[in-house]
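Help wanted!
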Amino acid sequence: DTEVTQTPKHLVMGMTNKKSLKCEQHMGHRAMYWYKQKAKKPPELMFVYSYEKLSINESVPSRFSPECPNSSLLNLHLHALQPEDSALYLCASSQDPTRSRYNEQFFGPGTRLTVL
Amino acid sequence: QKEVEQDPGPLSVPEGAIVSLNCTYSNSAFQYFMWYRQYSRKGPELLMYTYSSGNKEDGRFTAQVDKSSKYISLFIRDSQPSDSATYLCAMSNYGQNFVFGPGTRLSVLP
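Answered by r_m:
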């Protein structure tokens, strides 16, 4: 299995809703990432988990809350979002965050989020 | 100066043309260089991965890195309409500081 999967594919939510995005990989990768991508822009890093521990938080607002229940799963919990948070949310994984040779990242298809 | 700059495009070429996509960077610590292809409304797909200076070929794609000039290129030979996508360069140093370029949108016209 060489895929990163993400659910749901599309999500529409109101500003008072609570929802979660899910990401899964079965490649044995030990680093997982959340990115936000606006139209015609490159992905922007939000969070990095290394060996199931949060290692990087790129000053993301607290209305985004990541969780890594185990080495294969990554969640992003959403609460009280703003319309400007509408974007494509991408999950990625890489083999071993401590070994430089294996840091190429593999991306999932993304969840397209619309906040009304 | 941005850390990674990329020819902005958009770029339109006829089918069968050779395409050259380029990125420059300012951080001499970058050691690993990647090219991703992203189709509209999809996640980026890793195309090529190179370490340090030199060339790497994979089918119709050749990645070139010149660390002395802080310049990387992706060449696409015999371009096809299916190559129409946004191409993102990316680079990193020892697992830290993974950075994308802004992307170049390519259209290959039949």
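OP: Thanks! One thing I noticed: Chain A has a mean pLDDT of 91.
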